[in-house]
């Protein structure tokens, strides 16, 4: 390949290159030791030196140098792995450049001219290719060549990036390179003649960790189901660890749950994934989580700047993030200052005059007659132009915080409008009932809070674009006053922007979803009366109807989620503090932005956060983790904390304060509060003796978490009802608990949570895959006689056959939809590995494999399930003699034998051996024995009679038997036996055929038409075929085979499935070693 010209000051100081061809301007050289059979030691030393010095000569041992006469400086302009490749470049130089160079008087011009030509060739070669997208295309092209040469992966396997590192084998490090592609991570090392290379598919990675030992201060541990690998000595370990985690996460989401998890469109197209894309996606995921933006938002610009904060009378430094519909700002220290400005609220974005005090200022004006000043923006002109272009592209937006409903309703809609406008009356009624308790305390506390919030609004602004600082965090921890709760929830979640931009959307959803019955609506109806059953608002039809509309409308909007348990509790609380339409958009914000992947069919997001929570316990509460090594109990208890935001475990008014924090901080607030709860009970939990006691400790603690003000309605917890008016002695105040969580665990950031989620999603998905495997084996095991451990091995072989093709296929089906199913080529590959008889004829084996696939493909979707495959294999290895014969019989008649199958050689070549004598017993004795066996089999076949087999099909049946006997120790006896049985069946068929013809002639004389009723087959063969060919039944063939003891012994002989599985694994390993190398190095 052509290389970007690189200077070589000393052309061959160590005599490591041997010149093969030369002229006045170019040298073609070969690396010393390469291709020399008599210089093994030299080759080993040079190879080791190349590997240590990161030389490309190990992969490209040929090169072409540009040399200027009289100069000590040369330039490498081309290299190659084979002499043929380099010779092509040499010939091009000689024919196209060499004669032109002689006309240059200045030799320096020669070098400039040739280098320019080579750079032009490279530009043409890489245009539109992957290397052109990298920061250093030249180096990446070299790494890509090494990757292709070393591992021989399919051409569609795209290299993403690579790192120099060490791979440890025990206490011995192996210096080499780690290559990361879209489906694999691969390592290559060559040192002192020892080559180490292996490939780990991302689908096999179960765990990623950063570890530290005496030998490896910082290392990355990659765990698969078979072994562990440690990699260290990275130049940038943080970057490498992040990229490895991203690629494993993306591959597993794409392979194992592509429809159940949210995956960006760019990541669903592996060919587009580059290192730069991964970096951008990592930032985007962080921005979406930090500002709780819609998943559809695309990140455009990231710029360092400072924003003027009037409350602090100074500029605050941080980072500006721009997306499709938002301007977002976060201070350098996460959480100190957050600013979110929807573009729908922006009137103008303008540049101001730059001064020494205000360099590169930008003014953002919004509809509420406020303006924000940004300074110190690099590339200000381009940034402002891009933001203005997106601003112009927006349609005229609805002014912020304008709530309305369509007035053109039908009679049915008028009823709905009445409910929409009066839903707050539910709250008023319930509040009036509850205010009989501690009314003075409630009024005074709310009044104080309202004044504090009004003061805050006047200083920091009101609306989505308010300055969010640590001060507002303290106000939220105190509990938002009920009069402001709905408004602030809409602001913090930015559900108000969705509401304002979707006029009439909710009302139309309600109308469309009315009268629809499906699984989601049935589940909703079942849970309606379980949602806050003690609250007066949901003890009457009006409240229940509003809840039904919100849940049904959301299920109609997002059928992928539909309805999940705990959504009813959340929607009930939202309805208490917000209008019905507002509650709907709050539910949208929670389910689709704030708790991504929580409400899918397998609750993956919640399980990922439980796994993250376990790691945070080990990190933040090490003493508790030491006392309770198995944290699965605590994580299972805490699952409801995350799914219901503590609403199902805390007294109602205390839980609502937690919801306040959740809308302000996001999921970080639930992590912090969960850690605070465990920390407050650490001593009791450490001394607990079993899981039940730990559960009682946490339940009792949470039941007694109260509030210094009166709750809105009695808690569902009996223990909490006794103390609903005040915090009794010894009870915990929710505000104190929240503040304690902020103080002790406030350093937990959104960035840390997102990084942990990426890693732990790998564990959760692989755990689901293990569970799926267990379920599949549990489903199949009762129907087969294969031992469980062998069935598990067959499952693994099945999966190994499936995954490589899935990596590179363009199918629109998800992995889950195709899981445990093989298409025809995949099935034939596994068939050849596990079929018990020898592979004598490739053509015949291929024919049988095709027929077997057709037979097992019962639903005609061109896919065979694992269950059907296991059942077929069970028949071959553990079935009774009659079951095996029945299977072979079915393979030689329709539907397994299709009309389009063309095998003329079967009819033309004799199947019976011509050099062996044919011994046939007395026909009458054979017939008597056959009739006796036929009578026994008749009862078995009466329920499911098999079609008859004609003459040509029987000949192919015999051919299959011959191929099965080849190589058997009793081969001669078996051939003799099958010859006897074949002659017997041929005679039976002829006798039956003559009888059928005679009967047909008799019937024709009486004027009746021959119906061919003797042939009971359900296929499409004509009556003419039935008349011209004789037929035999399965029972006749089975009875004939039973007369030969050699054949009975052969089919009843035990077969060693274990040995066949071992051979299949070895064969798969060799195939992957040659084509897609396995993780197999020692």
TrEMBL record:
Stretches assigned to the Rab-GAP TBC domain: 479-666
GO molecular function: calcium ion binding; GTPase activator activity
Keywords of this entry: Calcium, Cytoplasm, GTPase activation, Metal-binding, Repeat
Region feature (Disordered): 998-1022
Pfam families (UniProt xref): GRAM, RabGAP-TBC
InterPro entries: EF-hand-dom_pair, EF_Hand_1_Ca_BS, EF_hand_dom, GRAM, PH-like_dom_sf, Rab-GAP-TBC_dom, Rab-GAP_TBC_sf
Domain of life: Eukaryota
Span of domain EF-hand: 844-879
Keyword rRNA-binding among UniProt keywords: no
Biological process per Gene Ontology, one example term: glomerular filtration
Keyword Metal-binding recorded: yes
GO cellular component, one term: cytosol
PANTHER family noted in UniProt: PROTEIN VASCULAR ASSOCIATED DEATH 1, CHLOROPLASTIC, TBC1 DOMAIN FAMILY MEMBER 8 ISOFORM X1
Protein name: TBC1 domain family member 8B
